[in-house]
Write a structure and sequence with these properties.
With 178 residues, the protein is α/β, with parallel strands linked by helices. The chain has a single domain, classed as Ribonuclease H-like superfamily/Ribonuclease H (Nucleotidyltransferase, domain 5, 2-Layer Sandwich), CATH 3.30.420.10. The chain contains 6 helices and 5 strands, in the order βββααβαβααα. The protein has a 5-stranded mixed β-sheet with strand order 3-2-1-4-5, with helices on both faces. The longest helix has 16 residues. The radius of gyration is 17 Å and the shape is globular.
Amino acid sequence: MPNTPLRICAFDLETVGIIPDVGIILCAVLKEPGQDPTVLRIDECNPDWAARPQDDQRLVDQLARRLEEYDVWVVFNGACFDIRFVRGRLAHWGLTPLATRALIDPYLLARGQLRLPKHSLAALASYLGLGRKCRLNRKSEPCLWPGSSPWASWARWADRILSTGSRPASCWNACSRT
């Protein structure tokens, strides 16, 4: 029987909030070694985003189905946040639960194996010589969230994240390396 190589995917979420029942996923980046990153954005997945800014249902479903194409996920703090958030949003919308895959969480590895003064992504990347976080595009964009919505306080932040056009702020320059 031939050996089939494992499909590995690094991914990152940008969310509003930390509780899946009330937060939303603004965007997600998936990166397979040797491939360009795939970016899923709420404003592209939800054509009515301006009218329904809390509706991340299509993004969540597309993200989950894409993640299930891989055998191994690599995600910083994924065991404690990202995976749980995706699962919580799927449950919120009554969608098919996310399948289980092998998970490599660099946060847990760094915390358990390395003696760093901090266990942040920035500290780990610096220790490994991977560079710094990508800078946000500071170009001002029109606010897409209605000012009267409870999400209005996040509008400028969301616009900055979504206006980058390529990666969320927490995606590393090194993520495009193979």
